[in-house]
Amino acid sequence: MDLLSASFTRILSLHSQLDLVEIHIGKLYGSLNPMTFLDGIQLFSGPVMASPPTRGDFENYIVRLHLVQRQIDEIIESFQLAVQLNRTLHNVSVEKVPGQIEGKIFDDPIQSPYYRPFNNTLENSLIPENDRVDLRNRGRQAVGSYINAFRKVKNYIIDEYMPQTRKSFGIMAWDPTHNYYRACLRWHLSFDMTPEEVHTVGIKEVERISEDMNQIVKKLGFTGSVKEFFDSLLNDHRFYSNDSELILELYRKTVFERINPHLSSFFKDIPNVPLMVEKTAYDGLGGGYSSASEDSPGVFSINLFRPLEVPFFEMMALSLHEANPGHHMQHSYSMYASLPDFRKNSVFSFYNVPNWFPFYSAYQEGWALYSEYLGEEMGLYKDNYEMMGRYSYEILRAVRLVVDTGIHYYGWSRDRAIDYMINYTGMGPGSAANEIDRYITWPGQACAYKLGEIKIKDLRKMAELQLGSKFDIREFHSVILENGGMPMSVLETLVTSWIQEKKISATAGKKNKPPLHNLDVNVYSSR
After folding, report:
1. pLDDT of residue 431
2. Which value, in Å, is the radius of gyration of the alpha carbons in the chain?
3. Widest CA span of the chain, in angstroms?
4. Residue 161: which of 103, 100, 81 has the closest Cα?
5. Partners of 388 in the beta sheet?
6. Do 216 and 142 sit in the same domain of this protein?
């Protein structure tokens, strides 16, 4: 058994000893609330028709459209149980859902995009004309059933669920023991930290980054606070535009013309996986990444619903995080790694934490935040304004530690969390509210970024100190990326073994790796 397999086996054994009370509490919360403005069937594209389609494909498509009614009925049953148990979401988590559903509802099923296969696609097929008439009639009924199902859940959420949502913003409203929140933190971090420890680290990081930002503000000759500095830029046409197409084009240039040419100096054997830069389809997060597959490119998406709240000086940091060398490169390496399918193509959903197979958020998001830092070493931040954008993103991740624990552990109000975020970042009120609503909806998830980044930086510092001139940044990054997502404790073990291997090669001239499976594996050794 190799080192990685041994580590995962050890972790599964330790996870089996977790407090079952925590698991039980989570089971009766997240899974009972499967639709939020960030998660849910309303955000999925829906059934897809094969191309070129056969008669059987049309029949299967019709069946899938009808089966959505059963799925919606099960969702409503789950919501009803959440209401009965007093385990509902807060209203901010669902108030946008009816509007998201509205895009799937049409008075005439023929106008729905889900009826399109029964038009030209069917017309150009080899299916006999008599059968086409039958398929169109049943297709219209199936699309009508699909629409009615979404109309039903929309009305249920508005009329019955939303009036019953919990009044407290934090989940401590129904879990005063904090066991569920602790379990969420453990799931996302893949190592143990108490809410108090997370909160303390957040405050210290906010103070440190604030000082860095204050130094830049002084260099730019501004005499006010950081918040006042960002406020002074709001009407500066150098940094803002109401033209979403212009902003999108600038993002594309940032990725493909400014970042990508520098990657080979810091990474080796970079997989050639296509990437697209597009607008988000709905008003949610500020930006995101959708994983590539063998048949489709990765997609870096930017929320441009409020273009005047998307400053140019933040483009570099967000692009480094979501595209390269962040999530897109991270996913590209894992696509070609020698991994079992369940790790290479993991399916995750944050609404069902901590009862879902681990996603290792600290690894995923810690790397992306580390990528923002790496942009400094790559010389990609062109001026002090972009450096302020970089620090505004870093301090956002530090602020998250404070407000996430503040909401779910210390009982902060939404307004207090929004004010704290606006005070320390350059974020506009609408974007800050969206962020806070995300933390209310996904307890603990936002803590993974900064704590994961800190761990990766610590591992790199350890490698640099122990290897000296033998340290190779390209090799180090390969060690981090080439095995896909994992607990941070396992990553520490892999980096430690790589350091030992490099030392042996340097002192004995040996090129073969030592027997890694004999190394002592302490999967919970992370701080």
Report:
1. 84
2. 25
3. 80
4. 81
5. none
6. no
**Any idea which residue has 């273009």 for tokens?**
307
Helix (H) or strand (E) holding 275: strand 275-279
Query: One-letter amino acid identity for 354?
Result: P
User: What confidence score (pLDDT) does residue 129 get?
Assistant: 86
Q: Which domain holds residue 186?
A: 180-450
Q: Which residues of 232-247 are buried (b: 16+ CB within 10 A; e: fewer)?
A: ebeeeeebbbeebeeb
DSSP assignment, residue 514?
A: P
Partners of 166 in the β-ladder: 90
Q: Among 389, 415, 450, which residue terminates a domain?
A: 450
Instruction: Decide: 439 and 417 in contact? Cβ < 8 Å.
Output: yes
- Split into its structural domains, the chain has a count of 2
CA distance 285 to 241: 19
Alpha-carbon distance of 62 to 135, in angstroms, equals: 9
CB atoms within 10 A of CB 510: 11
413 inside domain: yes
Tokens coding 104:
């799937």
Between CA 37 and CA 189 the distance in angstroms is 24
pLDDT in tens, 99-154: 999 999 999 999 999 999 898 888 878 788 888 899 999 999 999 999 999 999 99
| Residues lower than pLDDT 50 in the chain | 1, 7-8, 10-23, 514-527
Give CA–CA dist 74/155, Å, rounded.
Answer: 15
Q: Which helix (H) or strand (E) holds 128?
A: none
Alpha carbons 445 and 329: distance in angstroms, whole number? 21
Domain-embedded: residue 156: yes
Q: Are 155 and 82 in contact (CB under 8 A)?
A: no
- Same domain? 156 vs 198: no
CB atoms within 10 A of CB 94: 22
- Rounded Cα distance, 114 and 416, in Å: 43
Which residues have CB under 8 Å from 383's CB, separation 6+?
none
Burial annotation 249-263 (CB, 10 A radius, 16+ → b, else e): ebbbebbeebbbebe
Helix or strand or coil: residue 299? strand
The predicted structure's pLDDT at residue 143: 96
Same domain, 445 and 346: yes
In degrees, rounded to 5, the angle at the alpha carbon of residue 375 between the alpha carbons of residues 369 and 376 is 110
Token pair 């049409």 is found at: 106
160, 274: one domain: no
Beta sheet of 287-290, edge-to-edge order: 275-279, 298-302, 287-290
- Residues 352, 444: one domain? yes
Q: At residue 9, what is the residue type?
A: T
The DSSP output letter for 477 is H
Q: What is residue 36's three-state secondary structure?
A: coil
Q: Quick check: 395 and 206 in contact, CB under 8 A?
A: yes
The Cα–Cα gap between 302 and 251 comes to 9
Q: Is residue 17 part of a domain?
A: no
The span from the CA of 508 to the CA of 510, in Å, is 5
